[in-house]
Amino acid sequence: MKREDGLLTKKFDKLLIVNRGEIAVRILRACHELGIKTVAVYSDADRNAPHVRFADEAYYIGPPPARESYLRVDKLLDVAKRSGAQAVHPGYGFLAERAEFAQACVDAGLVFVGPSAQAIKIMGDKQEARETVKAAGVPIVPGTEPGLNEAEMQAAADRMGYPVLVKAVAGGGGKGMRPVHRSEDLQDAIAAARREALSAFGDDVVYLEKMITDARHIEIQLLADSHGNTVYLGERECSLQRRHQKLIEEAPSFVVDEDLRQRMGAVAVAAAKAVDYVNAGTIEFLLDKDKNFYFLEMNTRLQVEHPVTELVTGIDIAQEQLRIARGRRLRFAQKDIQIRGWAIECRINAEDPYNNYLPSTGVISTMRLPTGPGVRVDTGVFRGYEITPYYDSMISKLICYGETRGEAVLRMRRALEEYRITGVKTNIPFHQHMMDSHRFLTGNFDTKFVEDRFSMSDRAADQDMEAAVLATLMAHHQSLQAGQRIAAVGAGSEKGSAWKWYNRWERLRR
Amino acid sequence: MKYYTKVNDKEYIIEVGQDNEISVNDERYAIDFRRVAEGGMVSLLLNHRSLEAVVDERDDHWEVLTDGELYTVFVQDERAYRLAQARGTGLDMGHEAGVKAPMPGLIIRVLVEVGDTVERNEKVVILESMKMENELRSPREGVVTAVRVTPGASVEKDQILILISDLEE
After folding, report:
1. Testing the interface with A: which of B2, B5, B15, B44 to mutate, by most A Cβ within 10 A?
2. Is-contact A281 A227, C-beta < 8 A?
3. Which of A90-94, A322-326, A493-497 is least confident?
4. pLDDT-derived band at B85, boundaries 50, 70, 90
5. Which of the following CATH numbers is that of domain B2-87: 3.30.1050.10, 3.40.50.300, 3.30.700.30, 1.25.40.10?
6. How many other CB atoms are found less than 10 A from the CB of residue B79?
7. Has residue A329 got a pLDDT over 90?
8. Average pLDDT of chain A, as a whole number
9. Residues of chain B neighbouring A429 (CB-CB closer than 8 A)
10. Domain boundary residue among A210, A241, A263?
């Protein structure tokens, strides 16, 4: 069925996933569970990746840089045609919030698993989004219109008062965004934001927004079908961020009570309805210390942190996305949605928390994932996988569930300890340190906590002696082994020597 | 066998004996050390304390991952240690430190010039990689003796970008 705003919904039984990594795997799983056939795409860097191996079919689309592969609309639509897929799931990132892509899918007769191109376009333009939701009665943060020149922005910021945020109109995920605390720093920040936005999105238009201090980042997950039903699945607390990249998310939030949840939920539903929104989406809010909340933006796609909501509501959001795209009605109403228990997600990134969180590249030489009660790991990497600068540095998402927040934290601590990954540095020690921190345990943090008041330097890596012993024993065994190998070669090719060697090897290995 | 092992600026003298026994700085421990078939992992019972770790060999050091923490460990046997002592370097890294590119990328800005004095952890280079602007910081305090890149340059992983020497001399 094609709606007036261009949204296409119909039954499909073969889906093309134009993404990679853990999110491609997540969507593949939902498809397998629903009996939908799957088509994956891959660049040169991803031939061995799980999303290729898990899919029913896979097609090569080009070199590793995304603009030559995962962003090539022509190649992707060609794969849809060749494979006979009737629908396309964009995942997150890449083409997920490009209105032209959603439109191109519909024009090719393909169901786009997401909202209409028109809704993406409105919500993707920060300014238009603000105006649209404001008209629907949604509270917004004060700010300027985009397209002002440097001098006009200086005047506006000086009038508004500091701190202010410089934001790229086309921005997202913290790219093209800069906080400014003093009038004299504004021009540098504008230049940096423009540069970053130009290279990331090909558009350097920026605007200013008043910065709400001591704010929490709280977002509301929505599901909307194509028959006019929209529900909210409660909130996620995403305040723990660094440079606007979320690091830890949880559901529910420590500070949101049932009354606030209902109010935020109702506003979020109104914002979505203002653009006739269909499918899964998220409204991001800033919540200040007096519990006032302001619309930040809408993410018109599945989000990285959707699993915490899945765990506390029991609703499989990826599956629901597919049902909605097939034109089905939601099977539940608002009153059916209950929040039960607590879920926390830690994003495991290839970066060094002891060295300014610098990304770390390399080949994963060991990987053992945590398992056991209440633990879920969503990942797209494996042993032998190379972390390259082409794609983002997230290795996996570790999600833990508990009846209470305390129980979820204890599970997370246990799971982080079980996690073994070498070859690249990871931010696991950061998460461990956070799970031990008093501020986290008491829920006393805001969006600036990680950057301004959280330090790794007071974390004592206190197993120096043990590490020394382990490395020394390994070195010792290796030199013994090398000695034996020489001895075995020297002993010639008698029949017994192979067995002797095997025995020694067995002894070492046991 | 006697080993000189260094972790986080702490040095341990470790003697590995014959009968599942070691001494660490003259303190004795009963050990049972096994390699586990599962990808590069080892299990150590140290006076019955059960430790599990991944131990990986790198160019000139070992990486030990245990309980989520990654340790960089330098191990020298007696011979290597004596040789290094004779050369007068020991485990010392020398008087000049380089700021290396931790990953391939594009140089956005160079914030220092030759002759500048820098603090430890001072921002010196902005490198764009993984779709982010990353701040590279000085590993030590000192004076900049060489700047080997300019903005706009593409760099490889581990390429030395800037050299920093002792303040005096």
Report:
1. B5
2. no
3. A493-497
4. confident
5. 3.30.700.30
6. 9
7. yes
8. 92
9. 68-70
10. A210
Q: How far is CA A12 from CA A1, A311, A330, in A?
A: 12, 27, 17
Asked if residue B156 lies in contact with residue B104, where contact means CB atoms within 8 angstroms, the answer is: yes
Which chain A residue lies closest to B72 (C-alpha atoms)? Answer: A467
Mean pLDDT confidence for A490-496: 48
Catalytic residue (choose from A301, A326, A347, A376): A301
Task: State the distance between the two ends of chain A, measured CA to CA, in whole angstroms.
Answer: 63
List phi, psi (to 5°) of A201.
-125, -5
**A146 and A96, same domain (yes or no):** no
A109 in the same domain as A149: no
pLDDT at A475: 93
Indicate the DSSP class of residue A313.
Answer: H
Same domain, A87 and A154: no
Candidates A103, A136, A483, A455; CA nearest to A508 is A483
Strands B105-110 and B154-155: antiparallel
> How many domains, chain A?
4
In a domain, A359, yes or no: yes
Determine, yes or no, domain membership for A434: no
Its pTM stands at 0.81
Per-residue pLDDT of A236-284, as tens digits, reads 999 999 988 999 999 999 999 999 999 999 999 999 999 999 999 999 9
Host domain of residue A501: 471-509
Q: Do domains B2-87 and B96-165 have the same CATH topology?
A: no
Cβ distance A41 to A70 under 8 Å?
A: yes
pLDDT value of residue B31: 94
Q: Between vectors from CA A468 to CA B93 and to CA A387, what angle results, nearest 5°?
A: 70
Residue A44 has pLDDT above 80, yes or no: yes
Give the pLDDT confidence of A363-396 residue by residue, as tens digits: 998 899 999 999 999 999 988 899 988 888 999 9
DSSP A265-296: HHHHHHHHHTTT--EEEEEEEEE-TTS-EEEE
Interface-testing mutation among B28, B45, B47, B65, with chain A (most A C-beta atoms within 10 A)? B65
Tell me whether residue A77 is in a domain. yes
Chain B contact present for A487, CB below 8 A = no
Distance CA A75, CA A72 (A): 5
Please give the CATH number for the structural domain made up of B96-165: 2.40.50.100
What interhelical angle do A317-325 and A306-313 show, nearest 10?
100
pLDDT tens sequence across A51-60:
999 999 999 9
Same domain? For A105 and A19 the reply is: yes
Among this protein's residues, is A301 annotated catalytic?
yes
Quote the DSSP letter at residue A132.
Answer: H
How is residue B114 written in tokens? Answer: 């030759």
Domain residue spans of chain B: 2-87, 96-165
